[in-house]
Amino acid sequence: MTEIAALKAGLLADLDGADTPERVEELRVGALGKQGVITALLKTLGAMTPEERQVRGPAIHDLRQSLTDAIAAKKTAMEQAIMDARLATEKLDMTLPVDMAGQGSVHPVSQVMDELAEIFADMGFAVATGPEVEDDWRNFTALNIPETHPARAMHDTFYFPDQDAEGRAMLLRTHTSPVQVRTMTSQEPPIRIIAPGRVYRSDSDATHTPMFHQIEGLVIDKGIHLGHLKWTLETFLKAFFERDDIVLRLRPSYFPFTEPSVEVDVGYTLINGQRVIGGSGDDDNGGWLEVLGSGMVNRRVIEACGLDPDEWQGFAFGTGVDRLAMLKYGMNDLRAFFDGDLRWLRHYGFTALDIPTLSGGVGA
Ligand code: DAH
User: Fold this and answer.
1) Which of 36, 224, 324, 357 has its CA 20 to 30 A from that of 81?
2) Which CATH architecture has domain 107-134+175-347?
3) What distance in Å separates the CA atoms of residue 229 and residue 84, rounded to the nearest whole number?
4) pTM value > 0.85
């Protein structure tokens, strides 16, 4: 037997006798580590004559390969043995009843926000966010609502006593529209985002709470027109209400940040005295519900955000998430959303395992 064959037999026998992963590692280092015997042999190759190398080279390489393979096989076998031992001792009784006590639920607003993010993700929209404490330039001025504009008064704004470092008045954002400004001033077009979040207005009754939720949408690209807006909203509302017979009515309206502006209604049908979304609102037993504000982004807004309005156009829309939740899931008092009444949450909440409506994707 050659010296190399003898070394190989010895190493393989040692490996065979190893009974712990530590011992295997020790053998590996001893043979293949920096100071290992095989590593040392490999180093001798350089000093050999070509003839000698032709004979001993393949034998040394074969030795290294054999030992590497044998170590890998040994490790796998050991891991398998450890796993088998664990499986033999650990048992899970799948027939035991589960203790459901104390299980929480997903608030309808969170559920609806997830649904919205999922629906718009299928149309290529990313989710953008902005702070709830905002400055009046982003909340108003950049959105073409100058200081003297009556829309400022209509927003019932909560102001902070102090201004920011740049001398701008600080406030709790009254809508999610400032995220439009934040996105346009920080991102290169094309832009396709939705921005869900909390907004604040000093207002409170059955349909108004001082804090509520909105979702904003913004698309900025080249050659965008009202047709794109209509298709997007129609696709979104069909997916959200899970009905194909959604009929939209676009009414001319006014928002400072869009031109032209449209208000969007969906048709409903009265069934047993209940408004069920779907069908034309002009039908005998139908009517219209306003669900969204939208329009083509005013070029003054695009300009204020540092973009060239002759190059970039787009549309925007905004609506109340709470209102969408009320319409979809048949809740009628907005205040109950934020009371934290456990009975209400148990009744209207969703289990964490509910999958957002559109996991299958927006149908083509
Ligand atoms: N920001 C508006 C509001 O709070 C909603 C809105 C209307 C947003 C039209 C838009 C839009 O982006 O285009 O009443």
Assistant:
1) 36
2) 2-Layer Sandwich (3.30)
3) 59
4) no
